[in-house]
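I have been asked to look over a protein record a colleague put together. The record follows directly below this note.
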Amino acid sequence: MNNNENVLKLKVKLEEEELKLGEYLRYNAELSSRFIKKAAKDRRIKVNNKEVTLSYKLKSEDIIEVQVNKEEEQDIIPEKMDLDIVYEDQDIIVLNKPKGMVVHPTKRHLNGTLSNGLLYYFKEKKENSIVRLVNRLDMDTSGLIIVAKNAFSHMALARDMQKDEFVKSYLAIVHGNIKEKEGVIDKPIYRVGEGTIKRIIDERGQRSVTRFEVIKSYEDADLVKLTLETGRTHQIRVHLSSTGHPIFGDALYGEEENEYIERQALHAYRLEFPHPKDRRILKLESELPFDMKNLIFKLEKR
């Protein structure tokens, strides 16, 4: 696959002859039906530099070109802010989100969100991008967030999040010492009702799987590495609380503990995933933030 900044270029193989263009893009190139339909409607797909329909039958050596970017607008107020950029290219940007920041505007948080800052950043750079969040973090969870700069990258990353090569790892500081030093928490998570954000362990919920490994133990506390196999809302927080080891400072699933830390001690510290275009594996890390290091210092002293 050859790509420049705005074009996805694909070469048809001999065994792919006679496939319809739409079928090829859906099953061989793994593009979503929605993306293909929109690109076709916007006349952003060409074969051998000519516009064709999605029913066009491909021939060996045909060159398919899909224009990735298009002019877009987003109803978010651009806002200048300092962004901690961990990685960036023409397709994606990965940021280290601080604690206390909402990722996307809501009725309660119209300003000061990561998306406000990102849209300002894109406009300053004169980049034709809107904010497409690939993963999200709770307001008081810090760490790595991936944002796609175009619809193709967003589609590819959303697809790959379901695969084994996409790895999301967190660090948490929990109450108590976990008996097993590593293992799997496999418990269904259920939303109690529309009026609450709280989740519970309940057989009516969706299957939720979290791998854990104790990195270091303190007196009645552990530093734990957690890797998500599913991505449910509050998954790590609910799972740890259900085992009797709630995260320090988690007011929703444990208790407020301002003498130790003023938020849940949870940090999205590592991402490993295939790049949406060239498929190389990106491995990105973010160090533990100061308030969690300070909590560890307090635990070591007690």
